[in-house]
Amino acid sequence: GTATRDRLRIAIQKSGRLAEPARSLLAACGLSWRESRDKLFCYGESLPVDLLLVRDDDIPGLIADGVCDLGVVGRNELDEQAGERARNGLPPAYRELHGLGFGQCRLMLAVPEEWEWQGPQQLQGLRIATSYPAILAGWLQRQGIDAHVVELSGSVEIAPRLGTADLICDLVSSGATLAANHLKPVENLLDSEAVLAGPAGGFDDARAGLAQMLLRRVDGVLQLKD
Ligand code: PRP
Ligand code: ZN
Ligand code: MG
Description:
binds magnesium ion; binds 1-O-pyrophosphono-5-O-phosphono-alpha-D-ribofuranose; 5-stranded mixed beta sheet
């Protein structure tokens, strides 16, 4: 929406890996909210900055629709949905404003342990299971590989054993899930971490100043960390 607002609304993950570090970072930036951990909306007290607790997958769309002004979300999710928009002929709706230094993971191709990996050309004609079809399709295209992308929303690592795919493309953090499923990582498609995302076009009301101040504070907090 284009409605003028004088409060900033930030979407963060309700529960999951990014939830607690996102809250801590924003608190370290001087934000505080009326305590309502069970609620999905937290009213900002120290500053006119409110929190919306949502599923991480919904954050890019909420920014694109103007429902939220900023979001803390994985670069993997942001890039995937940006790629999907591009494939549907839609203009970019959001952009990464700042890497946040937590939630690090990689989007990797992983193959059965016993495979001898010789390089991307080996993928020609194979079936790859993933929750990141747009990022994977873009990578395959750049490599000049024609392979079949099998889209799954979760438990991607089990696909080779089920015979629904030959290999997978999924997030790897500790590597424990791959190892448990007898898969080994072979190609890195994306280095991901939590990022602060905002609208491609920026703001033209009071939110511009609030967002600028928040970004400066985020920068300050992150510099203290290293
Ligand atoms: C992610 C990812 C992998 C796993 C990797 O799944 O999809 O399955 O974590 O982590 P590891 O390398 O430390 O084992 P998540 O637990 O977030 O669940 P989801 O796939 O259902 O989103
Ligand atoms: Zn998710
Ligand atoms: Mg998973």
